[in-house]
Write a sequence for this structure.
């Protein structure tokens, strides 16, 4: 019997050094909202996205002809072309463009995991193509939840649990640590209404975020896009041939 | 309306610096097995327990007339009086004794939180008296899960969820972060059979731990002891008057 590929979940970029990522596909997750927005940008034809940890470094990309996108604590940064809402990344404004992006949590998580065997971007928006692609790789998977300022958050964990649950059900993967097991349990409890689960769960925090209610609803929708952003030479690009491959391998 | 006291859960000693513990009661949790064993020791009349992070430092206490107890990776350390099994801490061998203790996770967690407003020790063995005492304090509570080598673990999280659930049900406390909310959800799912939940959940790890199966069953029993170990001047002691107070305030 062949050993199963392992599934691990890291709940905070601050804990990432505890994991061995050199032989794992790392899925970076910041459901609200960085990794959702990144998926939308590529679905709408963005050329590449350079994740940048620091605000100053991001601004410097403006002179190189990049659009610059920046957010801290949920707010768009002054002087930036746009913030972190997925609705900013739709339509003609991003098509063919290169974007430099800095956010509170998501771009920090990408930075923490940049030396992984491979780094891809996950969100509910691209969950279907991502699940199928991960299944085909038959490689260890390590989910990195961006969390909130290095603390655990629920929405990223639920996404990790959803994909982990799918992979484990295939029989080819095995949840290999307590955090992966917990993520699956939480997803099982939440799966029938993610929005309501998060609403009931983090009522206080959601109240503070009323301004982005539409963003939240959007970011919890599944399979709106068919791209898998992947880090190559320090920039995120859309993995080639994903749409075609998925279309060909899907049952009619 | 008076503001409710907050409940937070920190899943790893490595994340503890992200929390403000100067105004919180910190409950350190290492269900398997350090904090369970500490509770048993005080129930059996131990005088004090000095938690020591390093093995060498712990050994040095031998000359001062202490019993020395030490464990790494689940194994008793050579030359130590005993290891980390709760069954080591019963009966006449600990009565009136001072013990220096070093373990893989538990004593590291105590060390990380030593500057808290107050540091107490939690385990399923003392859950009842601890819950009642916390309720009476009406103070912010921060649970620190010792985890496993700074990674998340399920048993410590379930204990945090159990107490958090109890406190929140009183109406005087509010789960204030996603990790507290997740711990409550996980406890709700596990509460009817903690042993089975952990067995199903971490089958692999439990197999590796078959040798301590009896310890695990014991450590998941509730309300076997009526002590609350508290850190005072660098040493754990049994909080005075807990038994009497609890007895007096309990309904007949």
């Amino acid at each position: 019997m062949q050993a199963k590929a392992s599934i691990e979940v890291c709940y905070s970029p601050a804990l990432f050094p505890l994991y061995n990522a050199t032989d794992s596909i790392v899925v970076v997750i910041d459901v609200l909202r960085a990794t959702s927005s990144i998926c939308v940008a590529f679905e709408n034809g963005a050329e590449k996205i350079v994740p940048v940890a620091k605000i100053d470094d991001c601004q410097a990309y403006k002179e190189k002809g990049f659009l610059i996108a920046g957010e801290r604590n949920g707010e768009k940064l002054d002087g930036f072309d746009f913030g972190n809402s997925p609705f900013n990344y739709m339509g003609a404004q991003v098509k063919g463009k290169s974007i430099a992006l800095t956010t509170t949590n998501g771009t920090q998580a990408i930075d923490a995991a940049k030396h992984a065997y491979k780094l891809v971007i996950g969100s509910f928006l691209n969950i279907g193509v991502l699940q199928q692609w991960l299944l085909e790789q038959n490689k260890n998977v390590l989910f990195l939840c961006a969390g909130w300022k290095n603390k655990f958050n629920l929405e990223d964990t639920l996404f990790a649990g959803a994909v982990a649950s799918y992979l484990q059900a295939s029989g080819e993967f095995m949840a290999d640590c307590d955090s992966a097991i917990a993520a699956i349990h939480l997803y099982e409890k939440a799966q029938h209404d993610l929005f309501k689960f998060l609403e009931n769960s983090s009522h206080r925090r959601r109240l503070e975020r009323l301004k982005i209610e539409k963003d939240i609803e959007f970011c919890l929708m599944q399979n709106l896009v068919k791209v898998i952003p992947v880090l190559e030479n320090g920039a995120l690009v859309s993995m080639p041939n994903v749409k075609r491959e998925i279309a060909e391998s899907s049952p009619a």
In short: The longest helix of chain B spans residues 154-169. Chain B has a mean pLDDT of 91. Chain B is about 35% helix and 20% strand.
